[in-house]
Amino acid sequence: MDFDITWMLLGLPIAFALGWLASRLDLRQLKIENRQAPKAYFRGLNFLLNEQQDQAIDAFIEAVQNDPDTSELHFALGNLFRRRGEYERAVRVHEHLLARGDLDKPERDRAQHALALDFLKAGLLDRAEAALRKLEGTHYEEEARLSLLAIYERSSDWAHASEIAVKLGSDNNNSGSFSTRQAHYLCEQSSVMLAAGDTDKAMQSLRLASALAPASPRPLIEQAKLLQQSGQSQAAFESLLALDKFAPQALPLAAELLVNIAQKPELLMPVQTLLKAHYARRPSVDVMQAIARLSPDKATGQQCYLTHLEQEPSLVAATKWIAGEEWNDPDRYKLVQQALDKATVPLMRYRCAACGFEATQHFWHCPGCQAWDSYPASRIEEL
């Protein structure tokens, strides 16, 4: 059979025409879909800018249905769900993203980070921890470690918190030094060991904390307390001498402890010398009271309060002075004293500089905002 070239000449134009027609149909369909998706997307953005989150979510869901392969729409939708507190729906969106096989590594890491945030906001700390651990070695590594640190602090898992703090401190990042934070973790672990009766390990942790952060007052104060409890008053006093050298602003926190140390006759004069020298540099209500309590007689102690009042007005000092005076009318004096004692209670509290949380005791870790070292060593009256 002879090959007829005529059919080829006729077939080529026909094939070209059919191909062109098919491409035009596909292009038209693609344009329709692309017009629909951006329209819904921009409508969602408009709702979002007007703080109409319900309508924005509906618009983004429509956009995702029109173009299910667009990861940005999924991220926008998931973030909206999280902001509204619909954590279960946010988790589903981000888990759907992670299940896709066409995501590149940066997008996958982003989805993993978003999923971890969903779990954190929902309070599912165990699942958040697992999700954050998967971000090691990614662009979100530092942020993930900071979140892990917050989780371990909330759960009082000080061993794991120390591990993360070491990693953060060893990295070349902008997070700053974590040596003081590590010292706090060691002090917390020391308290646990002390409660279990392991005094030696508790002291080892405190010494390691002092070595890590020599200017941190907490390890020195905790060491002095433990040494005093063990009957080593001289060593306790030396620890507080170091406190006055490296962190003098915190010495008022150890004023009561110094009074106890001074019960040893051979340490009375050194303690008084330390307290008076510190008070001359930094007048403080707590140090003033300690000096008054260690005074050789009542008159000398009363003079301490008057000296303080000469330097600055203090209701606490005035109340202490009045309490030590003798009055002709005991009944009326008692009423006045009760009123003054009640008025000074709020003034003797400590206040967190970060959130304003007030407490009758000094905290190294604020129970309100979870900040470290946010409580000044001064009472509210002195701020």
From TrEMBL:
InterPro entries noted in UniProt: LapB (IPR030865), Rubredoxin_2 (IPR041166), TPR-like_helical_dom_sf (IPR011990), TPR_rpt (IPR019734)
Cytoplasmic side: 24-383
GO molecular function terms listed in the Swiss-Prot or TrEMBL record: iron ion binding
Primary localization: membrane
Entry membrane topology: Single-pass membrane protein
Gene3D superfamilies: Tetratricopeptide repeat domain
Cellular component annotations (GO), alphabetically ordered: cytoplasmic side of plasma membrane
GO-annotated biological processes: lipopolysaccharide metabolic process; regulation of lipid biosynthetic process
Residue sites binding Fe cation per the record: C352, C355, C366, C369
Keywords from the named record: Cell inner membrane, Cell membrane, Iron, Membrane, Metal-binding, Repeat, TPR repeat, Transmembrane, Transmembrane helix
Protein localization: Cell inner membrane
Domain LapB rubredoxin metal binding residue range list: 350-374
HAMAP family associated with the record: LPS_assembly_LapB (MF_00994)
Similarity comment: Belongs to the LapB family.
Known role: Modulates cellular lipopolysaccharide (LPS) levels by regulating LpxC, which is involved in lipid A biosynthesis. May act by modulating the proteolytic activity of FtsH towards LpxC. May also coordinate assembly of proteins involved in LPS synthesis at the plasma membrane.
UniProt-listed NCBIfam families: PRK11788.1-3
Protein name (Swiss-Prot/TrEMBL): Lipopolysaccharide assembly protein B
